[in-house]
Structures are given as C-alpha cells and as structure tokens.
Amino acid sequence: MPPVASAGPRSSSSDPARNSAADYVARLDRWLADRTSASGLDVADGTPPMFHPCTPRGMEPADRIVVSPPAQYSAVDGMPTDWHPVHLGGRAVGGAGLAMTETTCTSPDARITPGCPGIGNDEQAAAWARTVDFVHANSDAKIGVQLGHAGRGGSTKVMWQGVDDPRRGRLGDRRPVAGPPPVRRRGPAGDDARRHGTGDRRPRRRRPTRGDRIPQETGVPTMTVGAIASAEDANTIIAAGRAALCCLARPHLVDPYRTLDAAIEQDYRGHVPPKRYRPGRGARRRAQEP
C-alpha cells in the first residue's frame, strides 16, 4: 500500500505544492478504486473513499458513513415516540449509509434511563416499525438496532436531569463495567463485523488506534467511532484500511445532512439526494447577493 495522505476535497490551483497534493490524492483514489474493483465491487475512478461500495454481511449501504447511536432519552415507558422517526429519518434522508438506533433494551429493567427505548414487546416493535418503514420508503439508508442492557449502570434520571449513575461513588470505586459487545459469530472464520473505538475522551485522540489491527490482521470489517468530524477524516481512515465504516455521532446531531454536504463539497455526483431535495443541490455553490 502506498503512503496515505489526507484524501479530502479536490481543488485546482496555480500553487505547485497544492497541485502536487491534489495529484497524490487522485493517484491514491485510483489505487483504491482498483483495490475495491478487485474485491468484485464496481467503483468509478475519482470516487471518494467514503462513497466506495462495501458489503458487510451481504448488506450494501449507499456509502460508508454511519449515524452513530447517541442516546436521545425520548422514549416513554420504553415506547419510541414521534421523535425517533424524525431523528433517524432525518439522518437517513441526509445521506448516511447506515442509521443506528440508540441503545435499545429488551426488558424494562434493562433500560439505562427512563427515557431509553425498548424492544421487548409487540407494541414497542410496532412503534419501531414506523421508523424503519419511513427510512426504507424515503432513503437508500439501511437501519440497524443497538441492543443493550444497563447492567449496574442504570439511572432513574435522563441526561439533562443529572444522571444518577450508581457506579459513581468514591473515585477509587469507579471501575469500568462494560466489555466488548456481543457479536454474531460466523463459524471458525470469526466475526461478521465489529465496532471499535479508542475509549479516549480527549477529542484529538479519539480516532482509530489499536482497533485498526482487527481489519488489517484478520480481514474482519469494522466500524470505528471517535472524533470523526469531517469527510477528510472518514476518507483517510477508509483509504488506509483502518475501518470499513465510519460512525459519526455528535456531528450528526447538528447536521443531519452531513453526508449530502460531503458529496457536494467533493463535487461527487454519484451520491444522489432524495428527489424532493435535488433542486437544492447547487444552492450552497451559488454566490449570494447582499
């Protein structure tokens, strides 16, 4: 593999250094397209890495950007509410390839807070079906569920009320209680996919580190999360083979259309917005009159 430079937006300039960088990115894109094509997937030259096809577990998302599952604390007695199709549907319409629900629990005593959703009975499943149906009917996004259990980290309050986490006693008593999430096994070959993060809360250090050994040494596709804020971040991680999918959490809270924006910024026409939004595709490029 050639040395990887940042695979960011394309530009042209009379500056030789900038033109050299753009040429490197173009050559890197061609090399990556050849690598993707060798795996049996079609991709055009010049396609940014975040829009390269991939097929984890036979699923082919429209791109490699994932809506990471930050808690919304908007369920009522475990039931998803109107907030959930608006929140997840908006991010799916905004171009993400995969939208993940927040942690969803299988029983009332498994919920992390009173505002966390469940999927432990027919009524809850039917409420989730409303969100799933909207996503499938109005976007090319896939949708997945993050199952979880509070364990001894449950709370009687939601985040903005001041979560009363029972683990937070004296400093010496604060021990991690969560290990790697369970994964579906794929026989002796290993896992179908795994999600990894750095576990580091310092923003500039939360990009993939040791977790990138999983895809590089085992071939198991991974999703990575942690301070991935831009198309440039995602393109570089994917081009380097450090993860198959990039999860964006907080960036999606302020910009549901993060992926559509990235396609416009990179002048990539292969990622098509929903038909209702196509007239606005060039609006951000148009000079504004005072």
From TrEMBL:
Residues 164-176, 188-201 have a biased composition (Basic and acidic residues). Residues 50-153 form the NADH:flavin oxidoreductase/NADH oxidase N-terminal domain. Signal peptide: none annotated. Pfam families: Oxidored_FMN. Residues 272-290 have a biased composition (Basic residues). InterPro entries: OxRdtase_FMN_N, YqjM-like. It comes from the Bacteria. PANTHER family: BLR3436 PROTEIN, NADPH DEHYDROGENASE C23G7.10C-RELATED. This is NADH:flavin oxidoreductase/NADH oxidase N-terminal domain-containing protein.
